[in-house]
Write a sequence for this structure.
């Protein structure tokens, strides 16, 4: 394992934002209505902005001169540390929103907690990102409730999305040695906050959390599902085929 | 029944102390989502500190064809403009 847990941790935070941001940005020009199209693009851009900070920190801690761009565009799937949830395909609009909600419900309390981290660099990035995450969570919660408790069609799609994605949520809050090395009060409370918040929202949305308790994991250790490869190929092709290309 | 969401008119206040200005319109199923959409569509470049939305159908407008009778009579009445007064600097923006 790598020596510095801050490097690993910053990669996890950054890769979550990068992979989700890249996925969400694929909706640009394709969302069901113009207003949602712009909203999704805003969310994607917020996440890419946060990626710059996290991967910038990772490169700095690593000390080998790799920039945020190098880390984003020149690593293979095996070196990515994002959770499996964020690499799941966009699917339909309902699936994209459900993935976003399941992420936001973790991301916001996580950033709020990290704002109190002893490592001042982590605390500063969290502080800068937490307002964006608060809006993302408000927005995705609102849409989950509207669509879950909406028409038969929308309810059906949201329930199908929840059934498909729920088993990827355990990895978000399951702490390992890397997470535990980040000294911050309250990190262990995130699981409970997450479960409370999601179950309250799903009640309101008339959606049912699946009974099965099995949870996938592996992303944090670089073991990914098949969806990540094509996403990275799409994202990295320019830098791979024209190394060092600039605007 | 139409499947289209109703149209909302969006008003943004740019700075403290300034009035809300009409910036455009958008579609949304209700007022709450109209505010969210307005935030995403019209304040991306840090334009606003406050948003108002109103259903376009709730706004009553003057008829374009009535432009002549409504507005032209005031053209020739320059004495109604308060441009003949000196405003003291201390008054500030009016």
């Amino acid at each position: 394992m790598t020596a510095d847990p801050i490097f690993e941790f910053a990669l996890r935070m950054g890769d979550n934002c990068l992979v989700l941001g890249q996925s969400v940005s694929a909706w640009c020009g394709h969302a069901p209505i113009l207003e949602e199209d712009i909203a999704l693009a805003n969310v994607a851009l917020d996440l890419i902005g946060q990626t710059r900070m996290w991967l910038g920190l990772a490169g700095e801690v690593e000390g080998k001169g790799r920039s945020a761009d190098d880390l984003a565009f020149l690593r293979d799937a095996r070196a990515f540390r994002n959770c499996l949830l964020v690499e799941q395909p966009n699917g339909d609009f309902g699936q994209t929103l459900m993935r976003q909600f399941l992420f936001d419900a973790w991301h916001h309390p996580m950033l709020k907690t990290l704002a109190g981290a002893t490592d001042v660099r982590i605390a500063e990035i969290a502080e800068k990102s937490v307002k964006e995450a608060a809006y993302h969570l408000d927005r995705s919660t609102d849409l989950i409730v509207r669509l879950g408790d909406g028409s038969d069609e929308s309810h059906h799609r949201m329930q199908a999305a929840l059934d498909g994605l729920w088993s990827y949520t355990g990895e978000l809050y399951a702490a390992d040695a890397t997470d535990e090395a980040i000294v911050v009060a309250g990190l262990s409370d995130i699981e409970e906050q997450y479960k409370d918040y999601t179950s309250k929202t799903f009640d309101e949305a008339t959606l049912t959390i699946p009974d099965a308790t099995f949870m996938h994991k592996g992303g944090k250790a670089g073991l990914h599902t098949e969806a990540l490869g094509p996403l990275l190929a799409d994202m990295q092709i320019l830098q791979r085929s024209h190394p060092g290309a600039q605007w | 029944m139409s499947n289209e969401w109703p149209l909302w008119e969006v008003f943004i206040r740019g700075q403290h102390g300034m009035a809300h200005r009409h910036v455009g319109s958008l579609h949304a199923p209700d007022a709450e989502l109209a505010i969210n959409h307005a935030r995403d569509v019209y304040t991306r470049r840090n334009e606003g500190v406050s948003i108002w939305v109103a259903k376009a159908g709730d706004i009553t407008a003057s008829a374009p064809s009535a432009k002549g009778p409504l507005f032209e009579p005031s053209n020739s009445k320059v004495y109604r403009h308060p441009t003949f007064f000196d405003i003291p600097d201390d008054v500030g923006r009016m």
In short: Chain B touches chain A at residues 5, 26-29, 32-33, 36-37, 39-41, 44 (CB under 8 Å). The longest strand of chain B covers residues 20-27.
